[in-house]
Amino acid sequence: MKTHQHKFMERKVKRTSGDAKLGSDMDEEKTIIVTILVALVIIGGLLVYLVFFTPIQTEPFSAIYLLDSEKQAENYPKTVVLGQNSTFSLWVGVENQNKTQVFSVQIKVDNGKAPVGSNKTECIETFNRTLLDGEIWEFPATITIDQLGSHRILFELWFLDKTKNEFAYTGNYVSLSVEATQT
Predict the structure, then answer these.
(1) What is the topology classification, in CATH, of domain 61-181?
(2) Sheet harboring 136-144: ordered strands across?
């Protein structure tokens, strides 16, 4: 009889320790699930904060652009006839997304072979203006082509370097190629 009772007790002990292990596994799973949920809530909260409460930081820049006589980016002159339509108007725009700055737009006409931003091409006209941060300046420029051939009209953007008290090239320009013919 001892053997039968002993076997019964072993089974009971095994069952009890197995049930305890099963309960322990359930507790571990619940702990892991709760930990994952808490982590997801924290990550979600950080993402919401970053998206909605962090100010957008933009890179400071300045830009120059060219528009046709109707203030559109469409109908630029490509060919002119000397003495007929060889004088035309364009609109030049400068955008400042930086600190207040004095800008200069230098207009140059050449055959397209001189380097941009150099003093190798003579400046035919200069426009200067101080622009505040976020300000846009648009102005008309009248160009006259008086020689036959291919011409490049450059609009270079310069800024006043206050440490040197002279204008320095920003590296920004727009150009327009125009062919001049005769009737």
Answers:
(1) Immunoglobulin-like (2.60.40)
(2) 61-67, 87-97, 136-144
Bridge partners, residue 24, by sequence? none
CA distance 47 to 34: 20
Whether the model pTM is above 0.90: no
Other CB atoms closer than 10 Å to residue 103's CB: what's the count? 23
User: How is residue 7 written in tokens?
Assistant: 């076997």
Q: What is the per-residue pLDDT across 147-166, written as a single tens digit (0 to 9) for each?
A: 999 999 999 999 999 999 99
| Of residues 154, 181, 182, 183, the one with CA closest to residue 78 | 181
SS3 28: helix
Q: Quick one: how far is CA 153 from the chain centroid?
A: 26
